[in-house]
Structure formats: structure tokens, C-alpha cells
Design brief:
10 strands; Spore Coat Polysaccharide Biosynthesis Protein SpsA, Chain A; 300 residues; globular; alpha/beta
């Protein structure tokens, strides 16, 4: 096992909550630099970054070793959920979230989360929007969210982007961790379980992160298991009919409800504006066009 703990000072100033970012990784050499850099270059917020690696052999560890600002360990694990839980237990921030090794935060994203948490102390879970991008960081899908709606979560699906979500420390300290038996829909199960327990969600209408949509995504490679886990979550935390036609009808009904909520909140306009940005580069760490795109996203 390799374990590299950072000596970087980690503190909180002017009452803004501190953040801990957990990145589970395994042979992520193609993308890990973007993930690490996007955390390190966040401004006006105290953040620690913990990378929990599953024993990479492709050069990922060599990249991590070049970044003294992060804490990381590399050892075998039981999968992504197990890695995230390891990070949660080691983290020290007031707010905790996970960033997959192939995703990255947008400039100002973590500050927006911290401010929302400060302004809404009643919220246990804070989430924002994300942009769907390809391997090269170009926008490939126009999608924004809306305020929390448990029925939409259960019957439409997991619309909350985990890469743009943070959780209060008291949830983790009280034992609310990911279920390691879920390999694809661990975020859906976690959100449904927290909602079922009565914890409160708050939505931030700002683009927080970029989610890479590509053939290597676990959800894209394990479609059958994804469907099975989704049904399991719906049966456990929802009230679903036995017939597939009735379940499909509920899905379409809540799809319409989702559109209505976006329309009433004005977010449908943001989504249409985002559609006009398809193909634009968001890799702001490289400068140039990516910086301009992110500035535009910040105004949506």
C-alpha cells in the first residue's frame, strides 16, 4: 500500500465551510491531471483533496506523486463505493463530496457550493449543475436541474449530478455512507436513502463541474446492472407498480413534471442557452477557449 498524506495547511476562514473532495481512481492516467488541477486551482475556499486509488499500474501514481497538495493512498478495494467511503472516513472538511477521476470542477464551482451551504444551514445535501462533455472537454449535452423533488428522483431517475454534490459532515459522522454493494447506481441509492430518512436537499443554479460522458463510464459499460440496481432502489424506497407499462407511465409523468419545474423556475431558458454552446471547449486549466466558455457558463 502506498500512502502519501499532504502537509498542506487546511483551515477555514470568514465562516465559509471548508470542503473535502474524494477522488476514487483506478488506472486513470488519461484524465487524473484534470481532476487534480481543477481542485487545486479553486479560489476563495478551503479545500482538501484525497485521492483513493485502487492499485493503478498505468502511470496514475506517478502523476499523483508530483502533486504535494493532495493526500492519496493506493491499495486494493471493493470498488468505487468502497474507495469513496475510505475517503469520507479520512476527510476533515465541513462539506464532503466525490469527484470521479475523469471529471473536473469548473472555476468558482466549489466557492458556490460553500456559499450556498453557509446561506442555507438547514440543508444537509447541496447540489448544483454539471455540463456533460466528451473526452476532449467539449460540451455534448444540454441539461440543467431544478429544486429537489423526491418523486422525480424516484420515478424519473437520478437527476442529481453526484459530481456537483456535497454532503454535510454530520451525515458521514453519523454513519451515512455509500452502500458498497451498489457498483453503478451508488449515487441514486445514496440520494434515495437520505431523502427517505428526511434529510434536506438544496439546489444551487450554477454549473459546478464537468462530467465526462464516454464509453469508459461504468454506467455506460454496465447497462444491465444499472437497470437492475435502479429497480432495486425504487422497490426499496418508492412505491412502484408491478407492471412495466405502469412504471413507464410514471416515468413519463415525472419527466413532464421535471420540464414543468424547469419552466416555472426559468431553468429551461438556461438549458436552451446551453444548447447553443454544444461543441465548445470547457477545459479551463489549459487556458484559451476553455476559460471563455466557463465565463459564459457562469453567466447562465
Amino acid at each position: 500500500m502506498a500512502d502519501r498524506s499532504s502537509s498542506r495547511p487546511f483551515n477555514m476562514s470568514n465562516n465559509i465551510p471548508s470542503l473535502s473532495v474524494i477522488t476514487p481512481s483506478y488506472n486513470a492516467v488519461e484524465f487524473i491531471e484534470d481532476a487534480v488541477g481543477s481542485v487545486a486551482r479553486q479560489q476563495n475556499v478551503a479545500v482538501e483533496h484525497l485521492v483513493i486509488d485502487g492499485g493503478s499500474s498505468d502511470g496514475t501514481l506517478e502523476i499523483l506523486a508530483r502533486h504535494p497538495e493532495i493526500s492519496w493512498l493506493s491499495e486494493p478495494d471493493r470498488g468505487q463505493s468502497d474507495a469513496i467511503n475510505k475517503g469520507f472516513r479520512r476527510a476533515s472538511g465541513d462539506l464532503l463530496g466525490w469527484l470521479n477521476a475523469d471529471d473536473y470542477y469548473l472555476p468558482g464551482g466549489l466557492q458556490a457550493i460553500a456559499r450556498a451551504a453557509q446561506e442555507h444551514p438547514e440543508a444537509d445535501v447541496i447540489y448544483g449543475d454539471c455540463v456533460f462533455v466528451d473526452r476532449a472537454g467539449r460540451i455534448v449535452r444540454s441539461k440543467v436541474e431544478h429544486g429537489f423533488d423526491r418523486s422525480v428522483l424516484m420515478y424519473f431517475g437520478c437527476y442529481i449530478p453526484s459530481t456537483s454534490t456535497f454532503f454535510r459532515r454530520h451525515l458521514i459522522d453519523s454513519g451515512w455512507l455509500l452502500d458498497s454493494d451498489y457498483r453503478v447506481c451508488m449515487d441514486f441509492e445514496y440520494f434515495a436513502r437520505l431523502a427517505h430518512a428526511g434529510f434536506r436537499f438544496h439546489y444551487v443554479p450554477q454549473f459546478i463541474a464537468a462530467f465526462r460522458w464516454h464509453g469508459g463510464n461504468v454506467s455506460m459499460r454496465q447497462l444491465h446492472r444499472r437497470a437492475e440496481e435502479r429497480r432495486l432502489v425504487q422497490r426499496r424506497f418508492g412505491c412502484i407498480p408491478d407492471s412495466e407499462p405502469a412504471l413507464n407511465w410514471l416515468n413519463q409523468l415525472h419527466r413532464a413534471k421535471r420540464v414543468l419545474r424547469k419552466t416555472l423556475s426559468g431553468n429551461i431558458v438556461r438549458e436552451l442557452r446551453l444548447r447553443r454552446m454544444l461543441g465548445r471547449d470547457t477545459r479551463w486549466l489549459d487556458g484559451g477557449a476553455g476559460v471563455l466558455t466557463c465565463k459564459t457558463l457562469a453567466c447562465l
